[in-house]
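Narrative of activities, Objective 1.

The group set out to show that a structural description can be obtained from nothing but a protein's sequence at a throughput compatible with the screening campaign. Below is one input-output pair from the validation batch, recorded exactly as produced.
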Amino acid sequence: DPALVLLAGAPLPDIKVDEHSFAQLQVSAKRVLMTENEINFLVLPPMADTVAVFTAGYGFDAVGKADWIRRAEVLYWG
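Output recorded for this entry:
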């Protein structure tokens, strides 16, 4: 959702962060869509209250460390 604030009060459509920074984000999204495929990630349409996370096919250990993600519905699109 382009209206969601991800960092420092500024809406950002696309960011790249390391695991520690990912865990420190404070995201209010109701839904998190995880994908390992870059094409799937790039063609996602804007979705209300949704953040997409591209894991690059390697998994992403930080997901479990991010408190904000535990408050959201998490979906996987392979």
